[in-house]
Amino acid sequence: MAAPALLKCIVTTARFCNGLSRNTQRLQLLQRIQPKIILPRYYSKKNILELHKRGLFQDIFPDTSTNELVEILNHGHQAMYCGFDPTAESLHIGNLLAVITMLHCQRAGHTPILLVGGATAQIGDPSGKTSEREVMNLETIQKNVSSLKSSLERIFTNHERLLWKKDSKLMPARILDNISWYNEIKLVDFLSSVGRNFRMGQMLGKHSVQTRLKGPEGMSFTEFTYQVFQAYDWLHLYKKYGCLIQIGGSDQMGNMKAGYDLISRITGKTVYGLTVPLITSTTGDKLGKTAGNALWLNSDKTSAFEFYQFFVRIPDSEVEKYLNFFTFLPHSEIEDIVIKHKTKPELRYAQKKIAKLVTLLVHGEVGLQSALRCTDALYSSDVKALAELSEAELSLLFRDAATVELSLSAGTTIMDLAMKAQCFAKEGEVFVVICEY
Length: 437
Description:
The chain has helices at about 5-15, 20-35, 65-75, 95-105, 140-165, 180, 185-195, 200-205, 205-215, 220-225, 225-240, 255-265, 305-310, 320-325, 330-345, 350-380, 385, 390-395, 415-420, 425-435; strands spanning about 60, 80-85, 110-115, 175, 245-250, 270-275. By secondary structure, it is α/β, with parallel strands linked by helices. Strands 1-6-5-2-3-4 form a 6-stranded mixed β-sheet, sandwiched between helices. The model is unreliable at about 1-45 (pLDDT under 50).
């Protein structure tokens, strides 16, 4: 057998063998034939399943398809999508983990599809809900769609410009709105061609459906059909972009299975679902809009300073997890950061590292610098730091403080100013403070 053919045979065999001793023998033989060739790793750069080391993937569906999906990922770039319903005018930290996962996929050479649900927001996803969502008017939904698209574009642009330090070009992200295809479909045609592929038993068996049916409010027919629409979204993206992979929160597994079943019935092809964990507080409560504790990604809802401070304040026990979740730092650097942090945890070195990188991703350089100025002004005890704040930053920092409007005139003393601003009850108190400085 010629050396190239033998080499190919050995490489192919070694990649699929699980026995360490057999792989070692093949590697030694390979090195004797052509020493400069390095045996390809089973997990390559394109294999996004390696992200499980960072804790980013919680489940895979079908649960027996890991090896099959690895081969597909290693074979070439894939299209993969994640959906976001515009139920608010901003994404929040719960969505951010899914967005960052999509950025990891882009960094691995794949094409991310970010699907904003201008249509499905009119239906309402019952997953994780104890009651039906409040119906939104079309004007509000369209406004939210536009805002979410802008946020996603901003984050992906910030990532490529500020955090992607390599010469290679990233695959462009597609940001779509599913109303664009539902506007072209007639109801009867949809039910005739798509609806007949769903089975009531499977639909009724979904966890989200069972939970609601057992609840006091039950479930509307509209919500019940949500899984049909999300499944069709995946079918549409599969047909148009060859999208084999859907990524979503762990509460989306039921909807992913509906998409898997639909695509399998209509095309005979296998697709794959990957879930990311839900972000929770230290007490285990979900962080998000419904829970009422959302950390928003738009600065008009959560300022860059407040966003930065959220990460600065995370407990020491969470820093390693958050470094893996919300940054693109390699494992070796994360380990170094954690070790350095543990020597003097009171300095919050790890928290500040996370806060800086995530704020840069979400709010860009301007937002990060504003957050750092506000932090310095509030916590450094340096009067000069206050002078560097803009009027908007001052208003933000002291919006909950009592305010007094003063008209300054010539000859006004510090004591006069302090008393007019109602900082002290008596002039003697002002005098004591002035003397101390």
